[in-house]
Design brief:
With 344 residues, the chain is an alpha/beta fold. It has two domains: 53 residues, Urease, subunit C, domain 1 (Roll); 257 residues, TIM Barrel. The protein contains ten helices and 13 strands. Strands 1, 2, 3, 4 and 5 form a five-stranded mixed beta sheet that branches. It has a three-stranded parallel beta sheet with strand order 6-7-8. Strands 9-10-11 form a three-stranded parallel beta sheet. Helix 9 links the parallel strand 10 and strand 11. Helix 3 packs across helix 4, helix 6 packs across helix 8 and helix 8 packs parallel to helix 9. The longest helix is centred in the last third of the chain and has 18 residues. It is elongated. It starts with 5 loop residues before the first strand and ends in a 12-residue tail after the last helix. The C terminus is likely disordered. The structure holds zinc ion.
Length: 344
Amino acid sequence: MAKTAWDTLIKNALVFDGSGAAPQQVDIAIKDGRIAARGRALPEAEAAAVIDGEGQWLMPGLLDIHTHLDLEVDLDPGLSEVVRHGTTTVLVGNCSLGTCFGQQVEGDQNPIVDCFTRVENIPKSVLNKCVEAVKWDNSGDYLDHFSDIPLGPNVAAFVPHSMLRVEVMGLNESISRDPTDAELAQMENLLEQAMGQGYLGMSTDGLPFHYLANEPHTDQRIPTQFASFGEMKRLLKVVRNHNRVWQTTPIRESRQGLSLFSTDQRTPVWQVPEDLRPGVDGIRIGAQSAPGVSGICGAGQYPSAQGPDPLPGTGHQFSGLVRRYRLSSLRGAGVHLQTDRQRI
Ligand SMILES: [Zn+2]
């Protein structure tokens, strides 16, 4: 067989090129994993394989920049629901939660279960299985382990601040006091190391309904919410020095001078402290997901990528879909679930 110019030719799909321009019905030719030609009526004889894209959309992979797939990705690395919806890159370690420091189990304390159960609405029995799958104990090995599992989408990670606090202070101390100077310096060091390893930045959280789930902590919020502005400022300086990203969620109390504004009046999402104003301090601030009925972080995350709540006015129903999606994903990984409605 004669050698062809292209590996694959996709004919007649409606092509969204990612620029924001209106889609066009054109052909796309691919060679060695890259687009080699684009145009109308490209010659089929030049391609080893021809795909009829009539009636289909063809578009760049979506980047889902706010997920909590930290646990699912190790049980079901293909993340088939994510890929099926067109997402090719996911970010984990959002909202101060993650697994990059390992299991972090100490005595009867199990921080991953304690933190994820109520925030992410996942049964403890499932989370315990997830913790068993965690085989690393430092941020470098965490990133490395992604090379050893059959990932579906690409994965990138934030350093989760709640877990960073737990790593240095222990769970009980992380929800009861400020770090000592030595502890804060250790957090800076771990964060500095992680920036060198390739983490995207650091995540914190301020949502007032993010509580721990294990006794005797059930009246306490997750560790990141115990940090002073001074602690945040020192850690975020490390992030800024590397020109990385701070991911956070609305802090409802004015504890840190951040407050949520409506976006429908073209007012900014964030009001930021005087010394962190965009333009004044060169900081770019952007919304990570569009606000939806069930909250900035509650809607628009699953099952597809970022965007407005796909079911306007039905935020709670959508939350139900999210839960079903998450549970089906875990079930597919062989985790035994008693019932979707299991009390957690
Ligand atoms: Zn989140």
